[in-house]
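This entry is listed below:
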Amino acid sequence: MAKELRVGMIGYGFMGRAHSNAYKRLNDFFPVQHRPVLKAVCARNETKARAFAKVWGYERVETDWKKLVAADDIDLIDIGSPNNTHAEIAIAAARRGKMVVCEKPLAMDVAEAEKMVKAVEKAGVPNMVWFNYRRVPAIALAKQIVDEGRIGRAFHYRATYLQDWTIAEDVPQGGAALWRLDADVAGSGVTGDLLAHSIDTAMWLNGAITRVTAATRTFVKQRLHQETGKVQPVNIDDACMFLAEFDNGSIGTFESTRYARGRKNFNTFELNGADGSVYFDLEEPEYLQFFEYKQKQSGKKTESHLTGWRKIHTTNSEHPYMKHYWVPGTCIGYEHTFLNALADFVMGLESGKPTQPDFRNALQTQRVCDAVLKSAKTGKWEKTGVKL
C-alpha cells in the first residue's frame, strides 16, 4: 500500500505550477512507494490561491504560512515563494519536523543559508533544493560521461544564461510578478536567479569553484515600484560576468544577462578536457554534444581518424531517466525535470540515501554567488570558501 506524502505548497506562481505538476504525475511514471497528496496551498492573496487550488486539486487554502507549517496533516513543506521568505519558512518547518524542499537560490545570502542548513540538519529532516537542470537527461548524461573519465583532465568550463525580458524601461519592479527586480525581495538579480543554476551545474560536473572575479551592470537605474507607486532605484544586477578558478586547476567563464535581445532562456555550458568535451544548450534540451578525442581500439587508447563531435539524442532507455517515459526518439519537456527531481527525492526517502542537492550542497552555490557579488564591488579576486 502506498504511503501518503502530504504536501503543503507555499506560493502559486510559476514554480508552484511546476512543482504541483510533479506531485500529480509522480506515481504515473515512477514506481515509488510514496503517493503525494496535495493537502494545502498557502499564499497572501486568498482569491488567487483558491483559483490555484481548484485547478491543481489542493484540498484547502491557507493565507498564513505559520499555520501551514504547524499543521499536523502536512509532511512536506515546498517553498516556492520569493527569496526573502525562504529562510524563515524553512527554519520554522524544520523545527516542526517537516521535510523541506525549496526553490533556488537557497537564501538571500550565505548567512541565511547557513542558518537554514543548521536547522534542517539539527532536526534531521529530509531536504532538497530544486536545481532542476541537473535532471535534464542530457545534463545527467554529461555527468555520467565526466564520471566515466571520458573528458580526462579538465581545462575549461564556460557557461551562459541569457534572457531579454527586462530590457524595456517601463517594466516596473516589485509585486507578485516582478519581485525578481526588487533587491529587497530577490537579494540579487541574474546572479541568484540565473547564474545560481549555472554555478550548481558547473560544480556538479567539474568540482568546486574556489576563486572568482566579477563585474555586474544595472542598465536601467530606476523603475516604478508596483507596491509603493514611486519611482525607486534598481539595486539588482541586470547582467553579470565572472571568471572562475576550479579546485581541479581548470578555469571558467560565466555570463548572464536579461538584456540579450532574442534570448528567452538560453542556458548553455561547455566543458573541455584532455580527452574530450561536452556541450549543452537548453534550447535543444534533448541533445548532448560530445567530442571524443581518444577511442578504444583493440583494447588500447589511440587517436582515431573518425574523431569529431557527435550529437547524442538522449531519448534511449539507457539514458538518464528516459526508461520511465516514452519510446526512443520521443522527447520529454521542461516540466519533467521537476518530476525527475521529485522522483529522486522520494527514492532517497525510501532508500535512506538522501538525494542531492540538499541544503548543505546548495549552500556552496550560495557561497559562490556571494563571492561573485562581493568581487563586483571590490574589483578583486575573491575566495569562495567552497568545500564539496
Remarks:
- Residues 213 and 381 are 4 Å apart (CA to CA).
- Residues 138-383 form a domain with the Dihydrodipicolinate Reductase; domain 2 fold (CATH 3.30.360.10).
- The longest strand covers residues 34-42.
- The mean pLDDT is 96.
